[in-house]
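Record type: monomer structure entry
Structure origin: computed from sequence
Chain ID: A
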Amino acid sequence: MPTKLERSETGLSDQLVEKLGLDIAAGKITEGTVLTSTHLESAFGVSRTVVREALQILHNLGLTRARTKLGTVVLNRREWNLLDSQVIHWCQIAGDANALMSDFSEVRYMYEMRAARLAARKRGTSDLTKLNASLKIMRDAFFEEGPESQKLHVAHLEFHNIILQATQNEFMARLSVLFTPMLRLRFEIVNAEIKIDGTFLVRHKTLVDAITEGDEDAAENAMGILLDISHKEDLQTLRKDR
Protein backbone atom coordinates (compact mmCIF):
# COMPACT_ATOMS: atom_id res chain seq x y z
CA MET A 1 0.00 0.00 0.00
CA PRO A 2 1.60 3.31 -1.09
CA THR A 3 2.37 5.84 1.63
CA LYS A 4 0.26 8.96 1.56
CA LEU A 5 2.30 12.01 0.57
CA GLU A 6 2.61 14.92 2.98
CA ARG A 7 3.33 18.56 2.29
CA SER A 8 6.94 19.55 2.82
CA GLU A 9 9.62 21.75 1.26
CA THR A 10 9.44 19.38 -1.70
CA GLY A 11 6.16 19.90 -3.54
CA LEU A 12 3.62 17.09 -3.73
CA SER A 13 4.01 16.73 -7.49
CA ASP A 14 7.81 16.45 -7.15
CA GLN A 15 7.39 13.84 -4.40
CA LEU A 16 5.05 11.84 -6.61
CA VAL A 17 7.45 12.07 -9.56
CA GLU A 18 10.30 10.82 -7.37
CA LYS A 19 8.23 7.93 -6.00
CA LEU A 20 6.92 6.80 -9.38
CA GLY A 21 10.24 7.36 -11.14
CA LEU A 22 12.14 5.26 -8.60
CA ASP A 23 9.55 2.47 -8.74
CA ILE A 24 9.65 2.39 -12.54
CA ALA A 25 13.47 2.36 -12.64
CA ALA A 26 13.57 -0.43 -10.05
CA GLY A 27 11.01 -2.51 -11.95
CA LYS A 28 8.40 -2.27 -9.20
CA ILE A 29 6.14 -0.64 -11.76
CA THR A 30 6.68 -2.61 -14.95
CA GLU A 31 6.44 -1.80 -18.65
CA GLY A 32 2.84 -1.69 -19.83
CA THR A 33 1.42 -0.81 -16.41
CA VAL A 34 -1.44 1.66 -16.71
CA LEU A 35 -1.32 4.57 -14.27
CA THR A 36 -4.73 6.14 -13.83
CA SER A 37 -5.36 9.46 -12.20
CA THR A 38 -8.11 8.00 -10.03
CA HIS A 39 -5.85 5.29 -8.62
CA LEU A 40 -2.92 7.63 -7.97
CA GLU A 41 -5.12 10.24 -6.30
CA SER A 42 -6.50 7.61 -3.95
CA ALA A 43 -3.23 5.77 -3.33
CA PHE A 44 -1.16 8.85 -2.49
CA GLY A 45 -3.85 11.17 -1.16
CA VAL A 46 -3.21 13.94 -3.67
CA SER A 47 -5.31 16.03 -6.01
CA ARG A 48 -5.87 15.47 -9.70
CA THR A 49 -3.74 18.54 -10.44
CA VAL A 50 -0.77 17.04 -8.58
CA VAL A 51 -1.16 13.76 -10.47
CA ARG A 52 -1.45 15.54 -13.81
CA GLU A 53 1.74 17.54 -13.16
CA ALA A 54 3.66 14.45 -12.06
CA LEU A 55 2.58 12.38 -15.05
CA GLN A 56 3.53 15.19 -17.41
CA ILE A 57 7.07 15.20 -16.00
CA LEU A 58 7.36 11.43 -16.36
CA HIS A 59 6.07 11.77 -19.92
CA ASN A 60 8.71 14.41 -20.68
CA LEU A 61 11.39 12.05 -19.37
CA GLY A 62 10.20 9.26 -21.65
CA LEU A 63 9.05 6.93 -18.88
CA THR A 64 5.36 7.08 -19.73
CA ARG A 65 2.95 7.96 -22.50
CA ALA A 66 -0.72 8.94 -22.34
CA ARG A 67 -3.10 6.62 -24.20
CA THR A 68 -6.60 7.79 -25.09
CA LYS A 69 -9.36 6.07 -23.09
CA LEU A 70 -6.76 3.99 -21.28
CA GLY A 71 -4.58 6.18 -19.10
CA THR A 72 -0.85 6.69 -18.78
CA VAL A 73 1.22 3.66 -19.79
CA VAL A 74 4.72 2.89 -18.53
CA LEU A 75 7.12 2.57 -21.47
CA ASN A 76 9.97 0.21 -22.25
CA ARG A 77 13.37 1.28 -20.94
CA ARG A 78 14.49 1.96 -24.53
CA GLU A 79 12.16 4.97 -24.54
CA TRP A 80 13.57 6.56 -21.37
CA ASN A 81 15.76 9.64 -21.53
CA LEU A 82 18.79 7.94 -20.02
CA LEU A 83 20.86 11.10 -20.41
CA ASP A 84 18.67 13.10 -18.05
CA SER A 85 20.22 13.60 -14.61
CA GLN A 86 16.98 12.67 -12.82
CA VAL A 87 16.58 9.41 -14.75
CA ILE A 88 20.26 8.60 -14.14
CA HIS A 89 19.69 9.26 -10.43
CA TRP A 90 16.77 6.80 -10.35
CA CYS A 91 18.74 4.15 -12.24
CA GLN A 92 21.67 4.62 -9.86
CA ILE A 93 19.47 4.05 -6.82
CA ALA A 94 17.88 1.06 -8.56
CA GLY A 95 21.33 -0.50 -8.95
CA ASP A 96 21.74 0.05 -12.69
CA ALA A 97 24.56 2.59 -12.53
CA ASN A 98 27.23 0.08 -13.52
CA ALA A 99 25.38 -1.00 -16.65
CA LEU A 100 24.94 2.62 -17.70
CA MET A 101 28.59 3.37 -17.00
CA SER A 102 29.76 0.41 -19.07
CA ASP A 103 27.69 1.49 -22.07
CA PHE A 104 28.79 5.10 -21.70
CA SER A 105 32.46 4.09 -21.63
CA GLU A 106 32.02 2.68 -25.13
CA VAL A 107 30.18 5.76 -26.38
CA ARG A 108 32.98 8.07 -25.21
CA TYR A 109 35.37 6.53 -27.73
CA MET A 110 32.92 7.37 -30.50
CA TYR A 111 32.77 11.10 -29.86
CA GLU A 112 35.69 12.24 -27.69
CA MET A 113 38.49 11.02 -29.96
CA ARG A 114 36.88 12.74 -32.94
CA ALA A 115 36.34 15.85 -30.83
CA ALA A 116 40.05 16.00 -29.93
CA ARG A 117 40.96 15.79 -33.60
CA LEU A 118 38.54 18.55 -34.57
CA ALA A 119 39.68 20.72 -31.66
CA ALA A 120 43.30 20.49 -32.86
CA ARG A 121 42.18 21.64 -36.30
CA LYS A 122 39.67 24.35 -35.41
CA ARG A 123 40.40 25.62 -31.88
CA GLY A 124 40.66 29.34 -31.30
CA THR A 125 42.83 31.37 -28.97
CA SER A 126 40.05 31.60 -26.38
CA ASP A 127 39.66 27.81 -26.42
CA LEU A 128 43.34 27.35 -25.65
CA THR A 129 43.12 29.91 -22.86
CA LYS A 130 40.20 28.04 -21.32
CA LEU A 131 41.89 24.65 -21.67
CA ASN A 132 45.07 25.85 -19.98
CA ALA A 133 43.07 27.58 -17.23
CA SER A 134 41.12 24.39 -16.59
CA LEU A 135 44.32 22.34 -16.52
CA LYS A 136 45.85 24.79 -14.03
CA ILE A 137 42.85 24.47 -11.72
CA MET A 138 43.15 20.68 -11.93
CA ARG A 139 46.86 20.82 -11.14
CA ASP A 140 46.51 23.29 -8.26
CA ALA A 141 43.60 21.36 -6.74
CA PHE A 142 45.48 18.07 -7.02
CA PHE A 143 48.56 19.34 -5.19
CA GLU A 144 46.73 21.52 -2.67
CA GLU A 145 43.73 19.33 -1.85
CA GLY A 146 44.63 15.87 -3.11
CA PRO A 147 43.14 13.47 -5.68
CA GLU A 148 39.71 13.50 -4.03
CA SER A 149 39.34 17.28 -4.41
CA GLN A 150 35.89 18.26 -5.61
CA LYS A 151 37.42 21.29 -7.33
CA LEU A 152 39.68 18.94 -9.28
CA HIS A 153 36.79 16.84 -10.54
CA VAL A 154 34.67 19.86 -11.49
CA ALA A 155 37.60 21.26 -13.49
CA HIS A 156 38.18 17.84 -15.07
CA LEU A 157 34.58 17.74 -16.28
CA GLU A 158 34.91 21.28 -17.62
CA PHE A 159 38.15 20.33 -19.40
CA HIS A 160 36.38 17.71 -21.48
CA ASN A 161 33.49 20.08 -22.20
CA ILE A 162 35.89 22.78 -23.41
CA ILE A 163 37.34 20.34 -25.95
CA LEU A 164 33.85 19.80 -27.35
CA GLN A 165 33.36 23.56 -27.58
CA ALA A 166 36.74 23.92 -29.28
CA THR A 167 35.56 21.80 -32.23
CA GLN A 168 33.54 24.85 -33.40
CA ASN A 169 30.82 22.36 -34.27
CA GLU A 170 27.43 23.20 -32.80
CA PHE A 171 26.24 19.60 -32.71
CA MET A 172 29.46 18.37 -31.12
CA ALA A 173 29.31 21.19 -28.58
CA ARG A 174 25.79 20.18 -27.59
CA LEU A 175 27.10 16.76 -26.56
CA SER A 176 28.52 18.41 -23.46
CA VAL A 177 24.96 19.14 -22.32
CA LEU A 178 23.81 15.61 -23.13
CA PHE A 179 26.65 13.67 -21.55
CA THR A 180 27.59 15.82 -18.54
CA PRO A 181 25.20 13.93 -16.18
CA MET A 182 26.77 10.60 -17.14
CA LEU A 183 30.30 11.97 -16.79
CA ARG A 184 29.41 13.21 -13.31
CA LEU A 185 28.09 9.78 -12.37
CA ARG A 186 31.19 8.13 -13.80
CA PHE A 187 33.53 10.41 -11.85
CA GLU A 188 31.52 9.87 -8.66
CA ILE A 189 31.61 6.07 -8.87
CA VAL A 190 35.14 5.55 -10.19
CA ASN A 191 36.86 8.20 -8.09
CA ALA A 192 35.42 6.65 -4.94
CA GLU A 193 37.34 3.46 -5.78
CA ILE A 194 40.45 4.56 -7.68
CA LYS A 195 42.82 7.35 -6.65
CA ILE A 196 44.51 9.22 -9.47
CA ASP A 197 48.19 10.17 -9.39
CA GLY A 198 50.33 12.82 -11.03
CA THR A 199 50.43 11.03 -14.38
CA PHE A 200 46.77 12.00 -14.73
CA LEU A 201 47.88 15.62 -15.10
CA VAL A 202 50.76 14.76 -17.45
CA ARG A 203 48.41 12.92 -19.82
CA HIS A 204 45.99 15.85 -19.93
CA LYS A 205 48.89 18.26 -20.54
CA THR A 206 49.97 16.09 -23.49
CA LEU A 207 46.48 16.45 -24.96
CA VAL A 208 46.51 20.24 -24.48
CA ASP A 209 49.93 20.48 -26.15
CA ALA A 210 48.74 18.49 -29.17
CA ILE A 211 45.65 20.67 -29.56
CA THR A 212 47.75 23.81 -29.17
CA GLU A 213 50.17 22.66 -31.88
CA GLY A 214 47.30 21.76 -34.19
CA ASP A 215 48.52 18.17 -34.42
CA GLU A 216 45.33 16.23 -35.13
CA ASP A 217 46.88 12.77 -34.98
CA ALA A 218 48.66 13.49 -31.70
CA ALA A 219 45.49 14.97 -30.18
CA GLU A 220 43.41 11.96 -31.19
CA ASN A 221 46.06 9.58 -29.84
CA ALA A 222 46.35 11.52 -26.57
CA MET A 223 42.60 11.38 -26.08
CA GLY A 224 42.65 7.69 -26.93
CA ILE A 225 45.18 7.06 -24.18
CA LEU A 226 43.02 8.96 -21.68
CA LEU A 227 39.98 6.93 -22.69
CA ASP A 228 41.89 3.63 -22.56
CA ILE A 229 42.93 4.35 -18.98
CA SER A 230 39.44 5.56 -18.12
CA HIS A 231 37.94 2.37 -19.58
CA LYS A 232 40.31 0.19 -17.55
CA GLU A 233 39.34 2.11 -14.41
CA ASP A 234 35.67 1.61 -15.25
CA LEU A 235 36.16 -2.14 -15.67
CA GLN A 236 38.13 -2.33 -12.43
CA THR A 237 35.35 -0.53 -10.57
CA LEU A 238 32.63 -2.68 -12.15
CA ARG A 239 34.41 -5.89 -11.09
CA LYS A 240 34.57 -4.69 -7.49
CA ASP A 241 30.84 -4.13 -7.45
CA ARG A 242 29.94 -7.60 -8.70
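Annotation 1: The beta strands are 34-35, 64-67, 71-74.
Annotation 2: Residues 101 and 185 are 8 Å apart (CA to CA).
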